[in-house]
Structure formats: C-alpha cells, structure tokens
Amino acid sequence: MHFENKIVWITGASSGIGRELAIQLSKLGAILILTSTNQDVLENLKTKLETKTHILVYNLLKTDGIFNLVHQAIQLEGKIDYVIQSAGISQRSLSSETSMEVYKTLMEINYFAPLALTQAILPHFKKQNAGNITVISSIAGLIGFPLRTGYCASKHAVKGYFETLQCELYKTNIDICIVYPGRIDTNISKNALLGDGSKFGITDDNNKVGMEVSICAKKILKGIYERKKNIFIVKSERILYWLWWFIPSLYYKIANAKGVN
Fold first, then answer.
1. CA 195 from centroid of its chain's CA atoms
2. Torsion angle, alpha carbons of 99, 102, 103, 105, to 10
3. Which listed residue (58, 103, 111, 151) is catalytic?
C-alpha cells in the first residue's frame, strides 16, 4: 500500500482532522510522529494505533524552537516522507472586539508555525529529493466570512506562501499540498478564540452540520496519494464560493446575514 512504512509527521494530532488522519494512516501501515501540546491525549491515541508511533510534544506558538523540533523529528527514524500540518485555531469575534494579542496568536499558530516548520524541513526533502508537505487551510483561506477576520487573514497567508512554494518547487519531487476544508464535524468552534482570548466553548451550527471527519480525512489521503496541489473538501460551501466569484454582491449579503445576524 502507498503509505506502508512511510514516515508521516502530523501536527495538531490530538484532535479533529489530525487525529483522524493518524488513525487512518496507522491502518494503512504508516510509521507516525504525532505532535501537539497534550501528551496525555497523544499517549491515549497511541494505544489505539496499529503501527509504530512516536510522540513529540511541542507548543507551536514557540516558533523560534521549530528548527530544533524538526531536527528531533528527523532523528526519530532518520528521515521523514510526509508532513501533514493540521494544527490550527479558529476565531469567533467581530474585528472591532478582537485584541491584537488574539490576532498575533492566530497568525503564529495558523501561519508562522507551518511556515517555520516548512522552512526547516525543506533542506531535508531537497537532500533526499523527495517529500510531501501538506497544510490544512480552510475555505476561509479563499473567501472572507464574519467573526473570523484573523482566522481568514492567517489562512489567506497560508495560501500565499504555499502556493508560491508550489511554483518554486515545480520541477522537483517535493509535493506541496494545500487542503481547503469547509464545515467539518470537529471541535474547531469549541476551541475558537473570542476577542479577549478566551475560548468560544460551544459547537456552533456550522460544525453540527459539517462533514464527518472520517470522510474528510479519507479525501485528504486520497488527494495526497494522487499528488494533488489543492484539495477542496466542501459541500454547500461550494455555492458560497461560486457566489463570491460570480455574484459578489449577493455573496456579501448572504455572508453578513449568516455570520453577523
């Protein structure tokens, strides 16, 4: 099988899409490296997995230490074949009610952390002339939506950096994949930040009707296997994106009504 005995490093592996990817990759025979801030949750997850798994606890807010983190990850098995950057945090607050500290946190976790990790691991992939870097963005990385100014900004930045990297690495064997999920049934809204930095704490209606995370993860792995540069995982969100392109006035009206009122 394609992922059998491949070394796959997943950040944000303790919950949501990252956790489900770890479960499915383990069933496919991958050797895993799992990173998040919560060691107990990762250790519990490890007991459920079927293949060799390493735990590498780290707080990605500490971007200055990511170079050393990458070195540690490579040393675990001597190489890495795939990096899936799933760590991220969302937002539920109007721009006028959001502190600069919250904006900085959103950019550090969602943009600067994957950027720093990518910069640090690229020399390793270039040396072995192979590798895959997959980053989990969002449909919010393509269009704006109320209560998510900082989140959208960070995900738009992800698109800018990784899409440019795709161009730069076009003639190499290094694949850069950007994933754009819509609404997925995870705890992303519970962990989202309010304007003062506290957690939103509840599952909003968008997540309740979201795609099952197992289906989302399966689509991501299929896209990685097919070496896609962009993976769009959307249902009804596709209509909003279509409106944004072709009838923007209607898009803004609907987005305002759904997001603010």
1. 22
2. 160
3. 151
